[in-house]
Design brief:
Layout (H helix, E strand, L loop, with lengths): L1 E2 L7 H8 L1 H4 L10 E5 L1 H10 L3 E3 L2 E3 L9 E7 L2 E7 L6 H11 L13
Parallel strand pairs: 1-2
Antiparallel strand pairs: 2-6, 3-4, 4-5, 5-6
Length: 115
């Protein structure tokens, strides 16, 4: 699991994170397990974009990168996150646990930029 640069208050950064694999020349599977913090406005925008596929703590986009790889929008302990998931190796519930475990004992999220 790897945290990408926070997109709180920065819609452009959210799109940069969503498309990091193409910008870096990697296959879509490279995105699995990547996640970043977003804000409620981004959550709402994507919830209204396409009919959601509901999952643990939020929803997944029905539009997939490839196969069953899709962005999941998660609300965890009052904060909003986007995580790249699939059904086998990185389902939404696994990402929820990873995000919580990474931030145990703190409510202050410390984003690390990853290219």
């Amino acid at each position: 699991m790897m945290m990408l640069k926070s997109a709180q208050g920065d819609r452009t950064q959210h799109y940069e994170n969503l498309n990091a694999y193409t910008r870096n020349g990697f296959p879509a599977r490279w995105m699995l397990g990547k996640y970043w913090q977003i804000d409620e406005a981004i959550w709402d925008e994507f919830h209204e974009m396409l009919p959601p596929e509901y999952c643990d703590h939020g929803f997944r986009m029905i539009e997939k990168l490839t196969g069953d790889i899709a962005a999941a929008y998660l609300r965890i302990d009052g904060d909003y996150w986007c995580a790249m998931t699939d059904y086998d190796t990185t389902p939404a519930d696994k990402m929820v646990r990873a995000i919580r475990n990474r931030n145990v004992g703190t409510r202050r999220w410390l984003p690390r930029a990853v290219s």
